[in-house]
Amino acid sequence: MKTEALAAANLLPLIIYLAAVLAVAAIMLGGAYFLGQRHTAKAADETFESGIVATGDVHIRFSIRFYLLAIFFVIFDMESVYLFGWSVAFYQSGWPGYLAALLFIAVLLLSLLYLWSCGALDWRTRRQRAVESGLGD
What is the distance between the alpha carbons of residues 65 and 119, in angstroms, rounded to a whole number? Predict the structure, then answer.
């Protein structure tokens, strides 16, 4: 009997928090619905970027290299996040932590060397490479 009352008392803050979250979400969604702009104009369906109405063809094709570079940046940027966490706990992690960080850096360096050897970081076109090697125009 006593443990049931204790369990119910421990759940009370969670129930209050859940109710508060649901109330805030309902207020925000309801407020946006009632106070938001009504899209009845034809211009609401047009592409709009940075306050400038688009003219001409708005479907520009970007090279896949932009996306690859962004992915490489995210991957290698996460390295710094993990190494920062390791550096904060440097003395507590001791030699095992140091060896794990070295292994982590080695794997990332190997992946960077692999990307470099595959030409994934090379932005030159085939024509530019041919000209530089003396085979082109």
Answer: 11
